[in-house]
Amino acid sequence: MTSPRMTLWVAILTLTSLSCAGWAKAQGDSANYMFLVASGSLCDPGDSAACRAEVKSANGDAYEMTGAGTFDVENKSVKAAGTFIHKSTSGKVLQTGVWIASTLVSFVSYGRAPAALPRESRRLDPQESSLGGLKKYSGSMPTGGLAVFRILLYPVSGAAKTAVLEANCALGEVPRERAVEGVRLAFAGNGGEFSEEVSGRVMFLSMAPEVKAHAQSLAPELTPNSAEPSSR
């Protein structure tokens, strides 16, 4: 593995480990949403199968996704990373790797859902949060919505791929056509479309000003987009 690609992988894996340990740390100066996809406090310890975000194509191939990060709606900035597993219709693992978000395409809010905190009190216990040691939510609120990201997928072997990732949290006033929580993937070119949500937990947290300020003061300076993958 060449030096630029190694630098990229170290940055991505560091960001992923920081993000998925609990609630995602804010990575940008203006982030006003945090989100988790099948990771961190959304998952039961030792029961990852029940938490995975899985989506299938028409021919039965599947992607399993995890991830976490932050984004800002106004300036379309995003800092997010995660992992993926590509499986065949028979369940054989075809590819594994990591992904990073390059652009926030859009975000549609379904509204805040304060009742989600008591309902998920065990999973969202502030004592289990690792937001830089922040032990209280201090006004941050679970929010339903649909976020669309442009992402780059870096497999363990092979060339990088570009795709659009849709993450849907079915809280608040959810449109009927988006009642199923989970993710969808659409690859550039003829890479295929994965639009049948099988399972998956997604959560957005709108950040109150005090949470935002605290998170910014703790955010590490990680720039995974600074290194481009080289040919192998």
Structure characterization notes:
Strands 1, 2, 3, 4, 5, 6, 7, 8, 9 and 10 form a ten-stranded antiparallel sheet that branches. The protein has one domain (3-226). It contains three helices and ten strands. With 232 residues, it is mainly β.
Give the overall form.
Answer: globular
Beta strand count: 10
The Cα radius of gyration reads: 17 Å
The proportion of residues forming helix, as a percent range, comes to: 10-25%
Helix-strand category: mainly beta
Mean pLDDT across residues: 74
Task: Tell me the distance between the termini.
Answer: 7 Å
Tally of DSSP helical segments: 3
Largest sheet: 10 strands, antiparallel
Low-confidence stretches: 1-8, 16-29, 118-138, 213-232
How many domains comprise the coordinates?
Answer: 1
Quick description:
The protein is mainly beta and 232 residues long. It has three helices and ten strands, in the order αβββββαβββββα.
SSE layout and pairing:
Blueprint: H1 3-20, E1 33-37, E2 53-57, E3 62-72, E4 77-87, E5 93-112, H2 116-119, E6 141-155, E7 161-169, E8 182-187, E9 193-199, E10 202-206, H3 209-218
Antiparallel strand pairs: 1-3, 1-10, 2-3, 2-9, 3-4, 4-5, 5-6, 6-7, 6-10, 7-8, 8-9
Name its key features.
232 residues; 10 strands; 14% helix; 41% strand; disordered N terminus
